[in-house]
Amino acid sequence: MRSTNNRTILLKKMMAVAGLIWFTYLIYHLLSVLTFHAGEAVFNAFYTWFNSSWIYPVLLAVLGSTIVFHIYVAVTRQLANNKSVGTTPYKKSYPKAIPRVIAWSGAALVFLFIVIHSVQMLSIDATNLYQQMQEIFANPLMWVVYGLGMLAISAHLKHSLSNVLQTLGICSCQFHKVAWLIVIIIMVGFASIPLSIIL
Fold first, then answer.
1. Which member of 84, 98, 136, 177 lies 3.0 to 4.6 Å from 88 by CB, making a disulfide possible if both were Cys?
2. From CA 35, how far away is CA 32, in angstroms rounded?
């Protein structure tokens, strides 16, 4: 029983680390796309360099493996929790304010958005990415896709950032206000790109 609990705790911590890797990438991605505001030459030059560097394939491999691991642990833990309902007492029950179907639908929407965004970015002509971005956000359908994606990511990020330090055993407290501030800054930064094109 103790070995099972230790394994569960270890997997939960590894899941948190995988999430932190994606959070770090999200910050990097935000800073890189914000070069859009510096103009076509700067934006295209940066992504021409990045897409041809050794960093690009390594980053894709790391992100791909960590998101698969993150999802695997999340799903298997939930299935295990479902089986043990009524037999094992949990210190922290599932939040009653958030119906489970809504929480999992949000997580599924985050994953779907990542897949759509990744396929879109990998399939477009990167020789003039600045122009491609303008064409993408000229389509009202993309406003809906990116809007829903950003809302889903915001909710997931807020929940994760509020609990990740506690999960890793670094701090027993939850930083709800700080998490909200980080989420707002990130989302405003990403929203500034399509808004600058639309307006």
1. 84
2. 6
